[in-house]
Amino acid sequence: xxxxxxxxxxxxxxxxxxxxxxxxxxxxxxxxxxxxxxxxxxxxxxxxxxxxxxxxxxxxxxxxxxxxxxxxxxxxxxxxxxxxxxxxxxxxxxxxxxxxxxxxxxxxxxxxxxxxxxxxxxxxxxxxxxxxxxxxxxxxxxxxxxxxxxxxxxxxxxxxxxxxxxxxxxxxxxxxxxxxxxxxxxxxxxxxxxxxxxxxxxx
Length: 203
Ligand SMILES: N[C@@H](CCC(=O)N[C@@H](CS)C(=O)NCC(=O)O)C(=O)O
Fold this sequence. Notes:
By secondary structure, this protein is of the alpha+beta class. 54% of the residues lie in helices and 9% in strands. The protein has helices spanning 10-22, 41-46, 67-78, 86-116, 122-142, 156-165, 179-189, 192-197; strands at 2-6, 26-30, 54-57, 62-65.
């Protein structure tokens, strides 16, 4: 049984999609980051960087923060979505890290400057919007003739990128401009486990 700490964000949804895809037993704990619940001392023991998502695996008492690490842990625990032959393994890590180091931080800044900033900052919008569209172009070129990011097999790399692309409207991105990304996105969004994962936390 996994205790899963999350909120309504792409980083949280990477993990809820993975839990649903793997069919692992879990209990969701909503951490309202709008009310600073991530600074609760009990939560900081699990997630010392005061961010969701985080998990505690009740089977062994292990706690983990950082969505990329959690995805690798759950893949190893379930034996799913992380091929272990050297080529598949490292291609998956490569595109997972592309998400962790590129898509996540840059799209997150786009969301901030487009929706949350208390003042209009054209420079921030332009800088991160340009980089966001460059990343879409990289993904689109990579997905040409492929169904998935790594070794043409559904993996934690796809699961990591998907909830960020799902907010394309927040990014003022038209997926029709990136047809390979759109094809990939539509096929993954048709998966029942993805649809369930995108609804967590519920309510
Ligand atoms: N690199 C981290 C980023 C996690 C992250 O940025 N979480 C945000 C929500 S998406 C958060 O909890 N923010 C609260 C805060 O910074 O105080 C991961 O991938 O897990």
